[in-house]
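yo

u said u wanted the structure for the complex thing, so here. seqs first:
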Amino acid sequence: MKIAALAGGVGGAKLAQGLAKVLGSDELSIIVNTGDDFEHLGLYISPDIDTVCYTLADKANVSLGWGLKDETYKALEKIGQLNGPTWFKIGDSDLATHLMRTQKMKSGETLTHVTRDFCELWGIKNRVLPMSDDPVRTFVDTKEKGLLPFQEYFVKHQFELCIRGFYFKGIDSASPTKEVIDAIKTSDAVIICPSNPFVSIDPILSLRGIKDILKGKNVIAVSPLIGGKAIKGPLAKMFREMNIEPSVRAITDHYGEILDCLFFDQIDQVDMALEEHSCIILRATNILLPDIESRIRLAAEIVEFLKATNKD
Amino acid sequence: MKIAALAGGVGGAKLAQGLAKVLGSDELSIIVNTGDDFEHLGLYISPDIDTVCYTLADKANVSLGWGLKDETYKALEKIGQLNGPTWFKIGDSDLATHLMRTQKMKSGETLTHVTRDFCELWGIKNRVLPMSDDPVRTFVDTKEKGLLPFQEYFVKHQFELCIRGFYFKGIDSASPTKEVIDAIKTSDAVIICPSNPFVSIDPILSLRGIKDILKGKNVIAVSPLIGGKAIKGPLAKMFREMNIEPSVRAITDHYGEILDCLFFDQIDQVDMALEEHSCIILRATNILLPDIESRIRLAAEIVEFLKATNKD
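structre next:
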């Protein structure tokens, strides 16, 4: 069984980790959002790629939700003393990742190539694929400050500002990589991980040709909401600011016709109309993924479901 | 009394620290070699500027002779794990200096400007002046491997290779900064610190116009040799490889007509011919500078001497 998983940061990384334990190394490709990528202190930073890789390598700082475990922040402290920016918390070990990636990309390597090499050195067996090697930059349109680069909204302003919309700069001229297209085309199913649909999954879906390929595929999403709330991050708040009730229906409506099945949490209610008239299969289960056991359990449940229902 | 001191790294920084304690903040400008500067991991690194600044700010790692005290090396360790270069040992706190400097220079600031700002933030009252804002890169011509960038010879190969000569790439098109020229022109005397003449002082002296200005100045050098040996580094070995006996005479011959006085160590012998026929004043004293007391003592002795003998 070949699976292509679409993922953003923390939530996506959790399910990806479960899938990596359940599937063979050749069976899983993880396609990761690069819309959050940005340049900071002259370094090319790819937050979602790092979160996915650090999680798969069991190096992630689980309590913070970003960066590496057992991290120190001496460089950051000294950067602050030199009046440099400290709102984006780069740890000393994490700096090595950014320095090395930046150097390699400056010398002409693609993000895809660098990510493949880092995965090998970190002992990650599955393929982690940046959605594109072309620059796509997510901007958030806010009532208070207009368009802001995503990391400024998310980290600097701690997503306190009110959302009006999203803009993926560069999306029209960006191509999904050959590796991404191949991974989706050759997959038996595509799993949309429980990442933020607006800022983690939509950049991937907005790349040229991706939705067309997905229409012919069995696409399963795991809801990023539990009890109408996001585990972490601004998703429920974003839905409300867009005048949408954060609910199971909000997720099925958002993904629309590409979606064949949604795994949602058993504590969530599904309105009758959705259940009766939608052609999307709705599966209630436990989608809280606090530890490796729960991630493996949900991944196994999805794989079982796919084996039983695959279109092909 | 206005003093312009010419300095390289460790040895120069020691005397500069003593001079900074003895002279007022407006009385001392330290002109620092930038021939050792290089790019590494995408960072602009200025080893002599850093050694001088860290020493003046009492942040230097005295036992290592480079970098900061209380330093950690987590980023370096992870860079190694990603197969990156680890021969140049950058600490986590030191990284902040290089990251911030690189960013500022990329945004168009000069090394002179960045150094001034860092000095202010580090509480350094004296002016630390890079010799030039134009790139000058010291290469060492070795018997074994031909021309090598200085840091590769010095750090990577631990100066084990045999020297044939020196080459300062860019020296013909580099200008001393306005600040450097002003500091020398307005000085009552110039002190050549006990730095390596070949690779720390010669790049400064080789800049367009510098020797001409120095000819009209009272120039005092402190010998970088004690008992025919360098305290640290390859100077005695370099002299021998150039078929010159490392001695007091080697230093006076090296600096030639620009030199008015040499402070050398009391354990060194001066040959009779030099003493009798040279017009250079030779002063034997204790030039070993292991601690702040010895640095202040030598600095005070030189300033006393200058007050008594100044040409003007």
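Chain A has a mean pLDDT of 95. Residues 3-136+171-309 of chain A form a domain with the Rossmann fold fold (CATH 3.40.50.10680).
cya
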